[in-house]
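Recall the central idea of this unit: under ordinary conditions, the amino acid sequence of a chain determines the structure it adopts. In this exercise we apply that idea directly, starting from the sequence alone.
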Amino acid sequence: MATMTVEGVIEDGRVRLRHEVELPEHTKVYVVIPDVEATPMAYARSPRLARPEQAHDFAKQVIEVPTDATL
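Accordingly, the structure predicted from this sequence is:
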């Protein structure tokens, strides 16, 4: 696989290459961003019970109703 390195900048949210480069439509490219501090993504953990012995309080009850039931 041949590779080529071309410098570019972001303008209006799009990558603009600094050199005149002709690439065919749908060419796969990889963008490497040097010297940028990435903001860590937020991580939402699954909720955990403070008291696992209370898990029975959260048990689901399934109630089946006939398909022709009216609400």
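Strands lie at 8-11, 14-17.
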